[in-house]
Amino acid sequence: MAEDVIVTEGLTKVYEGMDAPAVDHLDLTVCAGEVFGLLGPNGAGKTTTAGILTTRVVPTAGRAFVAGIDVVRHPALVKQVSGIVSQQNTLDRQLTVWENLYFHGRLFGMGGRDSRARADELLESFSLTKWSRASVYALSGGMAQRLMVARAIFHRPAVLFLDEPTAGLDPQSRLALWEMLAELNREGQTVVLTTHYMEEADQLCDRVAIMDHGHILALDTPDALKRSTGADTILTVKVDRDGERLATALARDLGGVVSTRVAGDVVTVQVRGAERLVPRTVDLAEAAGVAVLDLAVAEPSLETVFINLTGKELRE
Amino acid sequence: MTTFRIEANPTRSAATASRAALGGLIARDLTVLRKTFGEFVLRTLIQPFLLCFVFLYVFPKIGQAVGGSSAGAAGFATILVPGVVGISIMFQGVQSIALAMAQEFGFTREIEDRVQAPCPIWLVAVSKVLSGSVQGVIAAAIVFPIAAVVHASGVTATVSLHWLEIVTLVPLACVAMASLGLVLGTSFEPRNIGLMFGFVVLPITFLGGTYYPWTHLAPVTIGHVHWLQTLVLLNPLIYVNEGMRAAFTDAPHMHLYVIYPVLVGFAALFLSIGLRNFRRRVLS
Question: Are B274 and B120 within 8 A, CB to CB?
Answer without folding.
Answer: no
